[in-house]
Amino acid sequence: MTQVSSQTRELAPEEADRAAIYGFVARLLQAPPTSADLDVIRRLAADETEFGQGLGQLAAAAREADVNALRDQFNALFIGLGRGELVPYASFYLTGFLNEKPLADLRVHMASLGIARADDVKEPEDHIAALFQSMEGLIDGSFGPTDLCTQRTFFTRHIASWAPHFFKDLAAQTTSPFYAALGALGGVLTAIETEAFDMTGREA
């Protein structure tokens, strides 16, 4: 959803993993998975960490899922006839309406960081998938060099204030076990990142 440059840089393995995780979750929130996507997700292995357990639950849900059914579930959850069951935009969660001040603030911040919406994207930039793609780019250097402080500021301003509520709602819905597992995984990711940024903020 966001415009990415070719300025990726060498990353420490843990930073590369963070970027990949943001991109992975963003991809599944942007569009329903393809058959190839499902094949990959079904092979994900759990580990003892909370995030690893979330991956395991998503893999288990993928093994029970059908690609055509997931397409219908994605549409019911996020698109619908006029509106889906969930509205995955910061403005909506923070104000009850689309295209409100949180979106305007985000656009100003994005411009200052050199992030722009891709020309072929029509959705507002405060969609959860676009915000996660922005975090991916800030981590991997796609938008030019950035530091942890820049990442923390973007996350705190535009994700931490509402994404946990969205992921809780996604995890609680009963339309799709797969997307419920994705909601749980997204909730774990935002909690981990919030704790890590809080810790780095205290150390700064």
UniProtKB/TrEMBL annotation:
Q: Which InterPro entries match?
A: DMSO/NO3_reduct_chaperone (IPR020945), TorD-like_sf (IPR036411), TorD/DmsD_chaperones (IPR050289)
One Pfam short name: Nitrate_red_del
- Is Chaperone given among the entry's keywords? yes
Q: Which UniProt keywords apply?
A: Chaperone
- The name on file for this protein is Molecular chaperone
**Protein species of origin:** Roseibium aestuarii
| Source organism phylogeny | Bacteria, Pseudomonadati, Pseudomonadota, Alphaproteobacteria, Hyphomicrobiales
